[in-house]
Specification:
single chain, 343 residues, Rossmann fold, 6-stranded mixed sheet, 13 helices, 12 strands, binds pyridoxal-5'-phosphate
Length: 343
């Protein structure tokens, strides 16, 4: 399912607010919690939207890597709403906040993001009629800025020298100054980030590949690795969990964090990983070229770096089944794609 197809489905299945629920009705039907009111229209529509999140396909890597007794699979996370793995976390954050009455059409969801989470927030906010405010480092790519603007997000540009750490500081200040105006999602500390993967990504992997022996994935906010890893370990304690980080602070792996030199996300749990490996940006670029040539996959630098780490893990095994994540495809990275001459 492509994100475009998903959008079309949602448009046809969405309940239109004015015709279904009048103001009078919504007041009658609304559920009041201790200090907030849950909007029944939002509740119904956020549930409908769930059909477009997750359930992504696995790609069997057979040409770029091949070794008797070892299998390698990569989960194509761009095949869901908004085109990236971050749809899962963003959706779960919206859903839980709507269910608790913390988020409504009168509140703006606020967060710091360098890209994919922002695109997911903006897409979901657009479909649910909830305003979205994003603190975005000014040096984010032109493509990202254009996508976010087209989706109607309110963008606050932050220092290009401070990355998402600086954007987080600005978001925190805004939230503290106007608590009535904003619901501060704080994906770096929000448990609904890693829980999205605990409840969806991990069970999907285990169902598709019951014999999985190794899970390999990058650390950004750390939601994907921590949530998926935690659940896989519960389902089978023998599964080895390998986290990946960039090999230096000035890397080109969009979405990844060099934890030694960055603000460590509140949801990060160093005890989840059995092992941590480092991947270089140039190694990722090599795999971008090779994945296109041999597997027909147009990957982002992040996805290629995950695949590079997974190939390294798989290469050391005599037998086993390795699964990794492909967070997004090359669509938003035209600069890198043309530099590497991937056509
Ligand atoms: C392209 C890409 N790769 C990897 C990640 C890391 O995922 P997580 O934040 O779940 O650790 C992100 C997060 O934004 C991303 O956008």
């Amino acid at each position: 399912m492509s994100s475009t197809a998903g959008g079309a489905f949602f448009m046809s299945s969405l309940c239109v607010r004015p015709s279904l629920i009048t103001t009078e009705n919504s007041q009658k039907m609304s559920v009041t919690t201790a200090s907030t009111t849950v909007d029944p229209w939002l509740l119904q529509n956020v549930k409908l939207l769930g059909s477009q999140i997750g359930r992504t396909p696995l790609h069997a890597v057979t040409k770029l890597f091949s070794k008797p007794g070892v299998q390698l699979y990569a989960k194509k996370e761009w095949e869901q709403l908004s085109g990236s793995v971050k749809a899962r976390a963003a959706y779960n954050i919206f859903k839980q906040a709507i269910e608790k009455g913390q988020l409504s059409a009168k509140t703006s969801l606020l967060d710091a993001t360098s890209g994919n989470t922002g695109i997911a927030y903006a897409k979901i906010g657009n479909l649910l009629d909830i305003p979205v405010t994003l603190c975005l480092p000014e040096n984010a790519s032109k493509e990202r800025k254009e996508i976010l603007q087209a989706l109607g997000a309110n963008i606050i540009y932050t220092s290009p020298f401070e990355g998402t750490d600086g954007a987080q500081a600005v978001a925190r200040e805004l939230a503290a100054a106007s608590p009535q105006k904003y619901f501060y999602a704080d994906q770096y500390k929000n448990d609904n980030n890693w829980k999205a993967h605990y409840h969806s990504t991990a069970p999907e992997i285990k169902e598709a590949v019951p014999g999985i022996t190794h899970f390999v994935s990058a650390l950004g906010t750390t939601g994907t690795f921590v949530g998926t890893g935690r659940r896989l370990k519960e389902l089978d304690p023998a599964i080895q969990l390998i986290s990946l980080q960039p090999d230096n602070p000035l890397h080109g792996l969009e979405g990844w964090k060099h934890l030694e030199t960055a603000l460590v996300p509140g949801i990060y749990d160093p005890n989840v990983a059995d092992e941590n490996l480092e991947v270089g940006t140039e190694e990722a670029w090599e795999v971008m070229r090779a994945a296109w040539k041999y597997e027909g996959l147009k990957l982002s630098p992040s996805s290629a770096a995950n695949l590079a780490g997974a190939i390294r893990v798989a290469g050391k095994l005599e037998s086993g089944i390795v699964v990794t994540i492909l967070p997004d495809n090359a669509d938003k990275y035209s600069e890198v794609v043309s530099k590497l001459n991937i056509v």
